[in-house]
Every structure is written in C-alpha cells, then in structure tokens.
Amino acid sequence: MRAYDIIMKKRDGQENTKEEIKFMVEGYVKGEIPDYQVSAWLMAIFYNHMTAEERYELTMNMLKSGDTVDLSSIKGKKIDKHSTGGVGDKTTMALAPMVASLGLKVSKLSGRGLGHTGGTIDKLESIPGFKTSISPEEFVKNANEIGVVVAGQTANIAPADKKLYALRDATATVDEVSLISASIMSKKLAVMSDGIVLDVKTGSGAFMKTVEDSEKLAKAMVEIAKLNNRNAVAMVTNMNQPLGDNVGNALEVLEAIETVKGNGPKDFTELCYELAGNMLEVSGIMTYDEAKKKLEENIKDGTVANLMKKWIKAQGGDSNVVDNPEEVLTISKDIVDFKAKKDGYIYTIDTEKVGIASMVLGAGRAKKEDEIDNSVGIKILKKLGAKVSKGDIIAKLYVSKISNVESSLSLLKEAYEIKNEKPDSYNSKLIYSIVK
User: Fold this and answer.
1) CATH classification of 79-324 is 3.30.300.30, yes or no?
2) How many whole angstroms separate alpha carbon 358 and alpha carbon 36?
3) Contact present, 377 and 123 (Cβ < 8 Å)
4) pTM (two decimals)
5) Where in the sequence is the signal peptide annotated (predicted)?
6) Annotated catalytic, 337?
7) Residues 151, 140: contact at Cβ < 8 Å?
C-alpha cells in the first residue's frame, strides 16, 4: 500500500477504504508518511469530502492513537455534553449541577480557552481554591458521591488529532465538515459515556458561520456517534450574539451561579433547560418534558444550588461562592463604559470581535502560553434588536492594568452595527434545529 495511491483516489473523488485510512493515520503518527503527503491527502478531502463511513473510520483511527477514559466504575448513566465553542458560553458550570440533580452522573473533561472563545477550566479556576487537576481516584469518587466532577484533560487522548490539526491549521484545511467532525468525535468517543449531547454553535461568533453548515456538522457528528453505537443528539444554537450577558472568567462564573439560583439571563437559562432535557432523554432516565419540569422544581427549591456547593467544595473550591459570589470572586472594580454613537436599533453584532475585545482586556489567550486575568471581561447591556439612543451604555468593560482598553473599545465599535430598522428576529433565535 502506498500513500501516493491513497491520495490519488481521494483526489479523483473516490472513497478511501478502512485499511487506507488506517494506513495514512498510523503512518503519519509513526513518522513513516511525510507532512507533504498527508497535506495533499487533507487537501483532497477538503475538496472532495468524505462519506459517513470514511468519517467514522478517520474518527476511530484518531481515537485509537491514544488513551480512552473508562467510566465504568462510575455508577449510573453518564451523558457527555460538548459545545463547539462560543462567546459567553459558560454552560457546563450551570448545566452540570442541573442534570446531576435529575440523576445523571456528570464526569467531564474540559479544556482551556484559546482565541475568542473561553475555556471551562479557566472559568472554574477563578473560584478560589478550585482544583481542575485531580487524581483518577478523586475523579471517580466525586462522580459517584456528588454526581459532578469536571477536570482538565490529562490523558493522552487522540494524539493523532493533535498532529493532524496542526497540519490542517498550516495548510488551510481546517474548515471542512468531515475533518471537523472526526476531530471533535475522536475526543468525545474516547470518553466512554452512555451518550452525547452536542451544542453546535452557528453565527458570527462560531466556527461555522451559517445554519446550513452547522446543520451539516451536527448531522456528521451524530452519524459518527451512531456508527459507534452511542446515543447522540445535536442542537444547532445561536452565536450571532454572546450567550447570556457576561463574557470573561469570573463574570461568567457569577452568571452561572445566578442561573442555578433561578436568576440567570433568559437566553442562557433557556439553553441550559433545553440541553438538560435532551441529556436526560438520551439517557433514558426521564423524558425531555419530565426533565424540564423537574429541573424547574429543583432550581426553585435550592436543590441545584446546594449540589453546586458540594461539587465546588469537593474540588477544593470556596463553596461560599454560591451564596456570596460577588464577595468571593475577584471581579475588577475598574469599569469603562462603551456607549452608542447614534440612535437606532442594535442590528448586528460581530460576536467574534466581542470575544476578541474581551481577550485583549486579559480574559483570554492569543497564544497558549499567555497568562489570563480572571477579574476582567465585558458585561453586555444591549443585545440584538434593542433600541438605543446616542450615549446609552451598550456594554461595561471590567479592566485591569494589563488590559488594552483602547483596542477593546475599537473592536466593540466594529462589532456593533446600529441601524434605524429592526433586525430580522431569525438572527436572534436561540435554537435553530435539533438533529437526532
């Protein structure tokens, strides 16, 4: 078997066999196939795409290149949730205790933020004392006893994906549905959960900019899961504006806490309910409608907030943060207002630029080695369709000594478009579709 022939087949629009895909992935990981040949193969895939079976084989070969995470010692149903990333997406922090209160075991490995999207691990570490590096024994113990554990990725999961992604990034072959879906699912399927609920973001702050492309990605990932005999549902959700009101680590923790106490922003609360309903339905524990009804009761009577306290305490954090978040969290007191330059309606928001505006304040990383400041970020006061007058405050910037305030304000000016007409409500719809 030769890489040359495999590349030529895909270049000519033919399907690669299971053996050919294995040959390419294993050969590249072992250093037996050079970068330039794998780059050519990736470009051929970019233009000619892959069938559902090819995508599955690519996924499984990337998965088999590293470790898997066995969750069998955790009793009960374990449903994983994955978001493709967005601005203000603090869902895991609120959703984990929500679904745990309904009987699911949340045992999740999360990552750090890079670029305009935030990372769950960075956000959790803004809670004083919270540990995201825990032993496998602690991981299992917390999942069994409390029902929630969220830790950083320490296992050697899908190293082939890391290597292939670096090459895709250097050869302009990142944004192709087969390659994206295989990349995500190789890591998701490596964690041996009972099912997966995928939150596929779409719009100006998402990787996929159109609903059509996002639905293609959602369908591809659900197909891969089903071929692996894993239950899966994908929701295509809005990222044409930040999710919730807060962007930035401690600010997002504050918002997640308020949400589990029943005081969260409408859009973020609704998304958590929808995700929870689908996670419970996928698990088979209860129906979607039963889950949403029971969750409402658990939030109202404080069950979810109390579970959040136990989870935070178990991972070394100050559980008093749930009752007194503004006292425990370090949030900058130095605030700069971003104001409307004219009268009209918020017509569009370039959400990616809002994310970058938060990053340059110090809330995120441009490079992996960058330090972040958990105290900074942006509070959004006006969202799509809001009527504003000249001088109205659209957003508040929480800044520190390391913040590039001028760049942040400049990015927000570019991000917000104000017009005399109202925007199409379709652009602010929360959930576009559900793929099962």
Assistant:
1) no
2) 37
3) no
4) 0.92
5) none
6) no
7) no
